[in-house]
Amino acid sequence: MKILILGAAGQISSMLTNELRNKTDHSIVLYARNGLKRLTTIYDSREVIFDGDFKDKDKLIDAMKDVDLVYINDMGDDVSTKTIIDTMHNAGVRRVIAASVLGIYDEVPGAFGEWNKRMIGGSPRMRSQIESARMLENSNLDYTLLRLTWLYNQGGNTKYLITQKGEPFKGAQVTRQAVTQLIMDIIEEKSAKYHQTSLGVGEPGTDWAKPSFY
Question: Whole-model pTM above 0.90?
Answer without folding.
Answer: yes
